[in-house]
Amino acid sequence: MPRSDDRTTELIGRWDEWEWGRRPERIGPDEGRSREFLRVVLARAARAEAAERAESAWESAAGRRGLSHRLAGEGKPIAWMIATAPVFWAMASGSRAALVVGVLALTVGALVERAGLARQGREN
Amino acid sequence: MPSALRDEELMLAAGRGDTEAFAVLVGRHRERAVRFCFRLVGDWSTAEDLAQDGLVRLFLLGRRYQPRARFTTLLYGVLKNLCLDELRWRRRWQGPGGGCESDEPAGEEAGPEAVVVRDETAAAVRRGLAALEPEHRAALVLRELEGAGHAEISAIMGWSLSKTKVTIHRAKRRLARILEEAMGDASLR
């Protein structure tokens, strides 16, 4: 290993030990501090868990499932039929405006589905 | 007795709602978590807050936890993500190196000259680490200070093994150059 690498390692190590030596008392190995830290973690975990439960209960109670959920999961075939309807309309009518609307609807549908899939991924 | 169990077993028990097992896990890794966060963000208050946040996330992850890797790999991964978010936020709002100053006053137990040299060295290393890209800093800290192997770092960072090795090498080179400029240290050339 080159000399500079050894020296850099040494300096980082010295800085780290020096900072650790100056840490606030509350971060030390004291039993009481450790209990206090744990108390805070458990309290925050309980709050986060309660918030998660409340959100999921609210979503299922209110049937709060957005378009992104429908396009990405349940109701996918019907949602996509609605999104692609303007394309069929354009094909049937031969209207250029309808074609533009159809392409836009498909693009928006694809983006929304992607967002829905990402959201489901996060939730799972 | 939870204290005799391995980290992975404690995590599985915590996932089943055993808070005593989670308490043992927190007690075992509290200092490591705070110190790792400090090494990345550079101030103790934020480090403590991020460590608590990371452990909360682990508790919530417990229900879906599957011991595929070492517990510390998961712990470092969660903490690293939180610290990088914090560093990116600081960079966006405070510029490069923002918030890298330590929040605690310097000790005065040594002589004045020793304190000056020590303070200069510490400040140079702190500035050097703050100047690195947050992800590079994380990889370097894992290698140099946490003693993690390249394979574990690549799992924590989500990089290939070769990218991990190259990034750590470059980060260390960059830090050496910054320290050389700051301290004029011949041995760094």
Short description:
By secondary structure, chain A is an all-alpha fold.
Describe the structure.
With 124 residues, chain A is mainly α. Chain A contains five helices and no strands. In chain A, helix 4 (76-93) packs antiparallel against helix 5 (96-123). Chain B has eight helices and no strands. In chain B, helix 2 runs antiparallel to helix 3 (44-61) and helix 7 (150-157) crosses helix 8 (161-183). The longest helix of chain B is centred in the middle third of the chain and has 24 residues, at 71-94. Chain A binds chain B through residues 3-5, 7-9, 11-16, 18-24, 26-27, 29, 34, 37-38, 40-42, 44-45, 48-49, 52, and chain B through 19, 22-23, 26-27, 30-31, 34-35, 38-39, 44, 48, 52-53, 55-56, 59-60, 102, 104, 106-107, 118, 121-122, 124-126, 129, 140, 144-145, 172, 175-176, 179-180, 185, 187-189.
Could you list the spans of chain A in which at least 5 consecutive residues all have pLDDT below 50?
A: none
- Rounded to the nearest angstrom, the distance between the terminal CA atoms of chain A is 45 Å
What proportion of the residues of chain B form beta strands (DSSP E)?
under 5%
Helix content of chain A: over 70%
End-to-end separation of chain B: 54 Å
Helix/strand structural class of chain B: mainly alpha
Average pLDDT score of chain A: 76
User: What is the general shape of chain B?
Assistant: elongated
**What's the Cα radius of gyration of chain B?**
18 Å
Computed Rg of chain A: 28 Å
Q: How many β-strand runs of chain A? A: 0
This entry's quaternary arrangement is heterodimer
Low-confidence stretches of chain B: 103-109
Reported for the largest beta sheet of chain B, the result is: none
Structural class of chain A: mainly alpha
* Count of alpha/pi helices of chain B: 8
Form type of chain A:
elongated
Features:
A: mainly alpha, 0% strand, elongated, B: 189 residues, mainly alpha, 72% helix
Describe the secondary-structure layout:
The complex is a heterodimer of chains A (124) and B (189).
Chain A: H1 3-21, H2 31-62, H3 67-72, H4 76-93, H5 96-123
Chain B: H1 7-15, H2 19-41, H3 44-61, H4 71-94, H5 112-131, H6 134-144, H7 150-157, H8 161-183
